[in-house]
Specification:
With 362 residues, the protein is α/β, with parallel strands linked by helices. It has two domains: 238 residues, Rossmann fold; 84 residues. The chain is 32% helix and 22% strand. It is built from ten helices and 15 strands. The strands form three sheets. The protein has an eight-stranded mixed sheet. Strands 11-15-12-13-14 form a five-stranded antiparallel sheet, with no helix packed on it. Strand 6 and strand 7 form a beta hairpin. Helix 1 crosses helix 2 and helix 8 crosses helix 9. The N and C termini lie far apart (79 Å).
Length: 362
């Protein structure tokens, strides 16, 4: 017992495992789906604490998390991805000694809240014999006797440093400010590039009018090889057409499309919100130089400067008007021995009213 908490095994509690218990531990280590379905209890609306009954999309994503080093997932709101990702961290820490796992989400209250209601509740619900002895048990951390640990922290560059993380789960990354996200990336990418053991999971569920477009665009155009996973409500078995109709009547069509269909809208009229100008064409190739499928002319572009040796951003994305030359390439992109500029997205330059042209001397 750890500090008087019932059913929580301390590092000093010694037990003798039966052959059946040893076989169960081997099964759980080899197959996280088996572990989830048979031993992981989660909070549910209808049944209270119940075993995690994975849906087909969650089973497929679980296989993805095991196979890929970098995963970027865009699932509809309340699809259960946070629970899936956090229990995956618990599985790794429990059955693979000396695994350091980090869960980050923009707000401290949410980070600690998810940690307490998902990871801690699932851990303490495990059979006593399956638990690793606990050395530390707080509202935001578990340190196990097998050398593994799981921390929950608000998303920031400082909180991403300090420990050699092997599994990093950044939840709701679209809420993180652009500058902070780039600082987090700069703190994590050196270890990600240098070690095959470091894994990164990015999860995002679109929320109505809240995402930062440049932030989302940054991750879409990173030079790192992400496996992308997308799930909308109609691709899942959790909801049917009747549910969709009721939800649309309750929250409206536009909000439903954003939160459950993954269509990005924005309410912002700030100059740094690309959606206010019109339709953008995104650079899906991630190559330099960029070749737009348009005629020669002037274009409004979103540009980022990247370091040559790492491919990491050297600054925040910025707007600039560029001209497409006779070869169909953007002219005027700056480059030197340490960094080069890359166009992330572009659109035809909106027409300038006659009076403005006159004032500008056009």
């Amino acid at each position: 017992m750890y500090r008087g908490i019932l059913n929580l095994r301390s590092e000093n509690d010694e037990i003798i495992l039966t052959d059946w218990q040893l076989a169960e531990i081997d099964k759980c280590k080899a197959d996280p789906e088996y572990f989830f379905r048979n031993y992981c209890y989660i909070h549910t609306k209808d049944k209270g604490m119940a075993l995690f009954d994975l849906r087909p999309a969650q089973v497929a994503e679980l296989n993805t998390l095991q196979k890929w080093k970098m995963v970027k997932s865009d699932w509809y709101r309340q699809s259960g991805y946070t629970t899936l990702g956090m229990l995956f961290l618990l599985w790794r820490a429990l059955f693979f000694p000396h695994t350091c796992c980090l869960y980050m989400v923009p707000k401290k209250k949410l980070a600690y809240g998810n940690f307490k209601t998902i990871i801690r509740e699932a851990y303490i619900s495990l059979p006593f014999w399956m638990q690793q002895g606990v050395k530390e048990w707080t509202n935001h951390s578990i340190v196990m006797a097998n050398g593994s640990l799981i921390y929950a922290r608000p998303a920031s560059a400082d909180n991403a440093r300090g420990i050699g993380w092997e599994y990093i789960f950044i939840d709701e990354f679209g809420w993180i400010k652009d500058k902070e996200m780039m600082e987090i990336a700069n703190s994590l990418f050196p270890s990600i590039n240098q070690s095959a053991k470091v894994h990164l999971i990015l999860a995002q569920s679109h929320r109505f009018g809240k995402q930062t477009p440049a932030n989302l665009l940054f991750w879409e155009n990173t030079t790192l090889p992400f496996h992308e996973s997308v799930l909308t409500w109609d691709q899942d078995t959790l909801h049917d057409a009747k549910w969709a109709e009721d939800m649309v009547s309750r929250i409206g069509d536009k909000k439903f499309k954003q939160e459950y269909c993954g269509i990005l809208f924005t309410k912002s009229n700030r100059a740094d919100s690309p959606e206010r100008f019109g339709k953008w064409t995104y650079n899906s190739d991630g190559v330099y130089p960029n070749v737009p499928d348009y005629e020669k002319g002037r274009y409004l572009c979103i540009i980022v400067s990247l370091y040559r040796d790492t491919g990491l951003p050297a600054c925040e994305p910025f707007f600039e008007v560029l001209t497409v030359n006779d070869n169909g390439h953007f002219a005027g992109l700056k480059t030197d021995t340490t960094a080069y500029e890359q166009v992330l997205a572009w659109m035809p330059l909106p027409p300038i009213p006659y009076r403005i042209k006159e004032l500008l001397g056009y």
